[in-house]
UniProtKB/TrEMBL annotation:
InterPro entries: DNA-bd_HTH_TetR-type_CS (IPR023772), Homeodomain-like_sf (IPR009057), HTH-type_TetR-like_transc_reg (IPR050109), HTH_TetR (IPR001647), TetR_C_22 (IPR041674). GO terms for molecular function: DNA-binding transcription factor activity; transcription cis-regulatory region binding. This is TetR/AcrR family transcriptional regulator. PANTHER family: HTH-TYPE TRANSCRIPTIONAL REGULATOR PKSA (PTHR30055:SF226), HTH-TYPE TRANSCRIPTIONAL REGULATOR RUTR (PTHR30055). Keywords: DNA-binding.
Amino acid sequence: MVTSGAYPLRRTPTQDRANRQVERILDAACAEVVERGYDAASTSGIAKRAEIAVGSVYRYFPDKRSLIQAIERRNQARYTDAVSERLADVTSWRAAVDVTLDTFREMHRTDPGFKAVVLSGLGDPELEAKPGEFDDQHAGEFAELLAGRFGARDSRDFRLAVTLSITMGEALAHLADRLSADEAEYVLDQGRPVLYNLLAPHLPA
């Protein structure tokens, strides 16, 4: 496989029209999995939703698993872009923690790609196995932000604290989304100070 942009493909699209077709395939795969579930979703159904021939799906993706893995990589790229844009205006490191957590929750509620990966029970194992990807990537970017803009003292322990806060924040968001509104508010109110407390020793008072 080759990699085009955020995810691996069987063949690299060389024209804008082909790039748009790949995005349409991924959008159709999200809709198919969300509506029918991963097991019932079919490549032919995805092709029908994308209004293309099934062979066009196989041109870029060998199977459903590779589609889900590509969706997950696209999710990560979208999340990174959204967080980066929103962090531009924050004025405190605690607000930066809130923005990161709230953006994650919002995208899981509004972007079908995030729901499709959760419903499939699949993900790209390389995203969690390769250094520098998945949580490591977000943690590294967030650590640089805290150090550069808010005066965090960079160290191994600081980097570990950031990675832990990112991982715990995502778990907190998943839990909140499974609860009623009142219960979600409670766990978020209890959970946010835990994230702050992890990072506070490494930042100016």
